[in-house]
Amino acid sequence: MEYCNPGLWRSIVPFFTVLFSFACVCRGIQVRLDPGPNYGNVQMYHNGTWQRACLEQFYYLGGYASHVMCKQLGFNTKRNVGMRQTGTHHGLFWYTWIHCSPVDTNLNQCYSEPITNRTSCYDYDKARIACLSDNETRVDIENHNVTVTDGFNFNTRCNVYTPQTNLSYHWNHNWKNLFYSGRYFSGKGNRTVAGNWTCSVSSNGKTLGSDSTVINVIYPPKRMQSKIIYAKVGDTVSLSETDVSFPSPETFTWRRLDTNSSFVRSVTPPVMSNIQQADAGEYIVMIQQPAYYLTPSAPAYRGNYSFGVQLVMIRIPYPPSIQCEEIVRVMNGQSRTVECKVDSYPRHHTMTWTLATTAGTRTQSSHKDTYHIVNASAGDEGNYTCRATNNLTYPDGQVETGTGTCVINVKVTSPNGGRSGDEGAAKRASGQETTTSSAVWGGLALVAIVVIGLLVAVIVLVIRQPDKKEVPNGDKPIEMTTVNRAGVAAISGPLYENAQDHRRK
Question: Does pTM top 0.85 for this prediction?
Answer without folding.
Answer: no
